Amino acid sequence: MHKFRKLLTLLLALTMVLGILCVPGLAYGKDVYNINKYVAFGDSVASGMNNEGGPLKVQTGTDAEGNPVYTELLGTTDFGYVARVARGVGLDVNDGAISWSHTGMRVKDILHEIKADAVDYEGDEYYPYVFKTTGYDEYRETIRQDIREADLITLNVGSNDIFTSPLTYAAVEYATRVAEGEDVASQGLIGKLNKLLPSLADATADTTSEMGIFGSLLNPAYSGLMEIFLQKSFEGYYNLKQTYPLLLQELRELNPTAQIITIGVFNPMHALSLTGSSLITFGEIADSVLFPLNSFIARTSAKYGCTYVDVVDVETDSSVHPTMDGYEDMTNRILAKIHPISEFKDISLLSPEFQKAIQWSVNTRIAYGTGEGTFSPSKTVNRAEMLTYLWRLAGEPKVESSASFADVKDSDYFAEAVAWATELGITKGTTALTFSPYLTCTRAQIVTFLYRYDQATNPDAAEAGSFAGFRDVGLGAYFGAPVSWAVKTGITKGISSVLFGPLEPCTRAQAVTFLARYVGA
Q1: What is the mean pLDDT of residues 316-330?
Q2: Whole-prediction pTM value?
């Protein structure tokens, strides 16, 4: 009996300890983030689709009487990033966290979901996931109220704009041409090459046999489909660029203070080979398309005070959706960007523009405070800090290479930012061997970094223009074109009407103000 009592006491003690240690993650997350309502918008990625999650019934349209039509798809919301983020911040789906996501959603669909008559659906009859008639119309005011009340909003969209919708249109048009007897197989680039190199058909068939729907596009028999798809994909990219700013603007007007996390477009084709080996992959080709798209999303997000999260490299499966590990990776990246909005006691005497830029930089996680309620706006910014700000503005993109400078160690917080900037040609270092990370960043260096970043990532980059006219900016100066560009784009007016002050050190307040002006925040 004595041994039994000791055992019982031990078990009770262990139970109490476990009860303390295993406090539900929901309570922990709520204490840390202080988020009471989370609203998610997105497509099938937000809905948790993949090959591992089991079947999920989702509404994919309506019948002739307007009744919803459901389709069973792979995946379940509980496995997607939305449910994981909700649990991470101390909420749960349908209990403080609401997902207005739906498979197949594009930017225009989400914008229409929020605001009636905001987009034109003319010529959109082929795409099945269109909500212009019934869909979410009856819930629009509820959705808008959810946005107004949200502390956190996440938005993932874009894949269907440039991949799924164009492929749907291409398939319908391709099938129509075939039915009319048109020889579409010989019209595409691969079909034309096949006439010159008859062996290409066999080689391509072998290469694409295990590559699924995207791989089949390389087959000469479908080369006409590929050509239509590429045309529609570029149209989708153009339409996305027109509507994405409108969507963020609408979200911001409904809720000026919520943390809005925008999620870039991931690459669903990393593992698909173009040559039958890892020499050339579809992923590398898709990355070249996604790079300017995600750069545009990152810049637009910053303009509206939203925080961009880069997910281009998350792991995907054959359903072209993230794996379970991929969803967990996305969740961790999103949670790392969520933060309480800080009030700084050392910025109240600054101009309204400086104060706004500082708060914007903190909200978007481009810059951080320096202590308890301080930002240190007058502290000078060094070269490493400035490139880190710029790297964060770009969404912290991953790079394969390491910084090649002797004074940049892999363990330095700025190592990845410097490697990225070097890879894009934003910096060449102060010598062939050194970057000089702790050297104070001058006004000339900052506008040069910004100019080179814009030229490297923005397809609509403005030309440098004519000479800016400052007495202290010589025609042969390395920063001549960048200063002219910065004046033309409204990033700076100089320190006077005739002086730019190229060698003057930049403060933290000035640095983030340059960035805020660059994105139009």
Answers
A1: 85
A2: 0.67
